[in-house]
């Protein structure tokens, strides 16, 4: 067998180690992380020769020394933690279009202010003290929790001890934790009013009623349906459209008697439902009226275009960032409840 050429040998050589954290830099320098921290903060406890060597390595590996030294002196990390608890449905993923849309706006807001994001998807029954450990890790300056899931009490307990935390979710009178979110009850009312005005005589609520936000949407829709004498019943599914497809198909095949209007807990569930209806030759909106919730960008691109309840995700992300930074500065901010808006298109 021939020997590898010089070029091949170079290609096979492992790339040089790249330091991304103080711990990485300490390992390369052969010192402790504490020594690196003290050196970059300009502390006299580190001798000049060692400090110069560490600073040279930091420059070589792309660390911004002035910013890092400032953060070390102020005991700040420059990192915001973002947690998504999925105690209500572990099959849901961060790739969900709603999460990705909100995360995109959040990243824009926070990076513009000089912060990095640390993202965690949390399955609470595997990690019961996930929030206490996150807020107490020393790795983040503040925390944003996206969705209360079934973790309301745990979030309340953390809020009693940790000020710089803001939650995307549903607001309840008397709660301690600071929330930014849509008035889900009012949004549910708008959805039911639209379906009934479009001629629906019996309404199905598609999705889980366990998470606080979705329970409020169902309660709002039910309050209108009860006032109008229109029957409404829940059609439980997972919240991930991929895993909900079989459940939606089962509902359409067995327990849809009389239902001619569907309020889906999210746009993605509404779109999955529309796909199943079209497979069965059921016309939307002729044979079934359909309303979603979120007004994600894809909602205007479906055929027919989806009627939905809009929550202003961009404005919500801006308020989350603003309130968190104010709380990081010591201010005990109030919650913000955003008004929902009916976006009338073609499905109802």
From TrEMBL:
The keyword Transcription applies. This is DNA-binding LacI/PurR family transcriptional regulator. PROSITE patterns: HTH_LACI_1, HTH_LACI_2. The keyword Transcription applies. Keywords: DNA-binding, Transcription, Transcription regulation. It holds the Pfam family Peripla_BP_3. Residues 20-74 form the HTH lacI-type domain. GO terms for molecular function: DNA-binding transcription factor activity; transcription cis-regulatory region binding.
